[in-house]
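Section 5.1 Outputs to date
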Amino acid sequence: MPAALDPLLQHATRLTVLAFLDACREAEFGAVRDHCEVSDSVLSKAATTLEEAGYLTVKKGYVGKRPRTWLAATGEGRAALAAHLAELHRLVTAAAAAGARHA
């Protein structure tokens, strides 16, 4: 039986956040926000949902006197992303094959 799409990663912002973090060890909140082109509140909500699922960690600290937040994908989050992308690829490949049979 094929794997199901991960419901948490069907949301575009959460998928983009996890994909961004999959490519690096960790990233500062602002860098992720800017890449995703969302507001602080939208990223915060997405990060909280992913953190509660165990897909990312949130670390708070300071750079000088300025507070900073860093996000990092967990092993579980990286595995969930890989499985989700594999299932998307399987669905697209099957649809293309079915479409070709009807051409």
